[in-house]
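Example 3.2
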Amino acid sequence: MIHFKTSRFIFLLSLFSGLYGGIFELYGTGSYGINNSAASFGRGGTSIAYTDTLTSTSNPALLAHIQFTELEAGLNGRFSYISDYGFNESTIRFNYANLIIPIRKKGGFQLGINPLSTAHAEYQIKTSYITEIIKSSGDIYDISLGFGYAITPRFFAGISFEMLAGSYLLSNQIRFTNENYYTSERYYSKGIDGRRITLGTAWQQKNLSFAFTYSYPYTMKYKTLHYDSYNNYLYNNPDDTTFTHDIILPQEFAVGATCKFGQRHYIVTDYKFLKMQDVSLLKKFNPINVDYAESVSHYLSLGYERRGAVGLFVPFFESLTYRAGLFYEKNGLSTGYESYGMSAGIGIPFNNFKNRVDVGFHYGLNSGVIYNNIELNETFFQLKISINSLERWFNTRGKYR
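Structure, written as tokens:
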């Protein structure tokens, strides 16, 4: 059984929540593709062709490597600074949780909840007459059921069935300098329901491995409640309620490769290609108007990991796992911006190597154009922390290390 202190800490991770994130999350569904574990985060976001079997993965085929039953939960924190205006935003919140179980000697099963898209942004426009405040806040999570199996000793395949759920609140508030005018606000509350399937493969040959995944959201719908509010009323009924059957998430193609050298050193790289079936649906979903010039996004990452040594008499610093990485994103599914930066991470084992705390850190820059053709540079720091607990439930393979 999981020790009480460990399970209590995992539970506490899920209680954190936050307010605001990056300014470029104002449009569409905000930031997409944020379902990286803390370990992957430290490697620049690489996870398609590599897993150390102690952490969750975005490729279901790699579940075939799982050796122990594992519970992992993660926390995400972000701080951003807009250099041109000195405007700061920050958030700290629950990020993900996964339960992974080995099946016989060739397969693995995963039940998890992971974020797909998030928006926590606020933008203010001030003149001598009014102050206009635009907000976008919401998340889309997937509840996934994944399977991976070793078809041959070197070829693996997997599939994940995902239920999508989330909500967004989009608002536009106008405050007048003249006190004779009432503050007015128009806001849209959206509840989201959908389904997605992810297919994955992986192939290994000596010290090299290659992998491919494809994610397809095949059905989505959302309910919109439209309110107009004035501060002289105590409450307001919705002006309009509509149901919309539009897919507002992109298809995702990803390839990855891993090269192992020495006993404990790995170089990992991923490339992800995101494409919307109809990019105009994002403008329909989010009333904050922007002309979407593209319908695709690109994400490229490169990472390094040195696994920690395992053994009763191994020095502490030798037991640590060290990670580093670089990442670049050209986002065309929001307002059109570029993001690039570097990452670092560390894994700290405890409890006779049956548990580990992973910490991943990103430092980067977002650069692009937002509301009314204003160019902005946003520096951001992002931190992910997770705890992994390995236990001998169900059918595991052999003894602990």
